[in-house]
Amino acid sequence: MSQTQLITADDLAAYREEFLAERANVVAKNAVTSSGIRAAARVPEGVAANAMTFDVEVKQGERCDQERSGRCWMFASLNTMRHRIIRRYNLKTFELSQAYPLFWDKFEKSNWFLANILDTLDEPLDGRLVSYLLADPICDGGQWDMFRSLVKKYGVVPKEAMPETACSRNTREMDKYLTRYLRGCARRLRESAAAGVERDDLLAMCREMMGEVHHLLATCLGEPPASFDVRLRDKDDKLVLSGSFTPTEFFAEAVAMDVDDYVSLISAPTADKPFDHVYTVSRLGNVVEDGGVRYLNLPVERLKQAAIAQLRDGLPVWFGCDVDQSYLRDEGIMDTAALDVDALFGFPVEGCLDRAERLDYGESLMTHAMVLEGVNLGADGRPTLWKVENSWGKDHGRNGFDMLSDAWFDEYVYQVVVDRRYLTDEERAAYDTEEARVLAPWDPMGSLARVR
Questions:
Q1: Is residue 452 pLDDT above 70, yes or no?
Q2: Residues near 13 by beta carbon (within 8 Å), at least 6 away in sequence
Q3: Using an 8 Å Cβ cutoff, are 25 and 19 in contact?
């Protein structure tokens, strides 16, 4: 390393003198050391601009809580589906089981992992790809396309049919032991292949391993119901749905949603992802037979337009974002004007990278999925503020809701899921027919599937 990089005593003395010479630096130091960066950088006028009234709004039931798990994508998906049940049957509230898709996601991800291990037997164990696969094979995160695959195969059930357990509320222990077991499976498969074991025998080993995965998951989460009884009463206590259903029958009857009509739009303005093209992420998925994920990359304004159109039709919108940026969590406010970190420090910290640069340099990625349920529109018809249903319980934010400024949307919202009818003819044609360009497994557009 170059000797010119050495920091000298004279450098340190100059830094100290420069810092103490400015009154604002001393005031900032006192404030931050007493209360923290975000509290000191909070802008009350920015907070006041986030009033909880909306021109277009979708009403939802009571707030849900993912507790100590990374199931945001499941909660967001189920919240879009339970809205249909609440509206269809005129219910006060309703909740679908989140433990049920958790079971099948862990099960299918385990099978996906073993398939990837078989597919990479010739790759070096210490190479980037196999190291990546081993790093976190069954984390809690996921994508809309992965939830769609689960629903098509396994359906949904009411919360009462498969309630939460200690291991669904806090997935850390279950994930830890399942991950350890799967890494052991990877070792056995790689060593067996190196010893000359035929592929058919390796597949037989995988089937035996999956039986043990099922055993572990049933121990932690309970056995998923094959069928269940339902009795739903509306706001007037009238019986509106009753009978015995399988999970797939209940989805068809109560949710009545064609999940294949819903497509993922992303907005990543980086040089490696030209707009108006289709992308997938290598090695990202869960249900082997249903394939991986598929995105259409569009300018962020198109994501907003499609989301507003769906909200106007009375349907919530699943979206993925980098949730912790410019976020006043306790107040439920995501707004670049509500925090002024750069003014606090006196030089660009948040402003040192733009949207594309943050993605390229590892500063931003999708970390959380939620649901858009309202929007305010200015005199020009453009959005100014968005209403967000989170999955952190009713005591979070404003009765479980967050406010998201349109400026924050511009910077940190990366994905929305909308009905294909809100796309243009050209966008639908591209999504349906174009061969997807393959992104690396560690691309930030796949990061939501790796959150905990």
A1: no
A2: none
A3: yes
pLDDT for the residue 450: 86
pLDDT at 5: 78
Spatial neighbors of 198 by CB under 8 A, at least 6 apart, are none
The answer to whether 270 and 439 are in contact (CB under 8 A) is: no
Which of 301, 305, 308 lies closest to 373 in space, CA to CA?
308
Q: Name the CA dihedral angle for 268, 273, 274, 278, rounded to a multiple of 10 degrees.
A: -90
pLDDT, position 50? 83
Question: Confidence band (pLDDT; 50, 70, 90) for 113?
Answer: very high
Q: What is the 3-state secondary structure (H, E, C) of 70-81?
A: CCHHHHHHHHHH
pLDDT digits (tens, 9 = 90+) for 253-263: 999 999 999 99
Q: Cβ contacts of residue 102 below 8 Å, gap of 6+?
A: 69, 71, 74, 140, 168, 171, 221
What is the three-class DSSP state of 179? helix
Model pLDDT, residue 49: 86
Helices marked H in 136-231: 144-154, 166-169, 172-194, 199-221
Contacts of 303 (CB under 8 A, 6+ apart): 265, 267, 413, 415, 416
Query: Quick one: tokens of 220?
Result: 């932690």
* Residue 48 to residue 28: CA distance in whole angstroms: 22
CA distance 52 to 374: 10
CB-CB neighbours of 152 under 10 Å? 14
Q: What is the pTM of this model?
A: 0.95
Residue with tokens 């222990």: 173
Residues 401 and 56: their CA atoms lie apart, in Å, by 15
Residue 195 φ/ψ region, left for φ over 0, alpha for ψ in the -120 to 50 degree band, beta for the rest: alpha
99-108 per-position pLDDT tens digit: 999 999 999 9
Query: Residue 227: CA atoms inside 13 Å, Cβ hemisphere, count?
Result: 6
Taking residues 241-248, report their average pLDDT: 98
Structure-block tokens of residue 363: 């500063």
Domain ranges of the chain: 56-450
Judge whether 75 and 176 are in contact, CB under 8 Å. Answer: no
CA distance 118 to 112: 10
384-403: pLDDT as tens digits: 999 999 999 999 999 999 99
* Residues classed as catalytic: 72, 368, 390
For domain 56-450, which CATH number applies: 2.30.30.110, 3.40.50.2300, 3.30.70.100, 3.90.70.10?
A: 3.90.70.10
DSSP 304: H
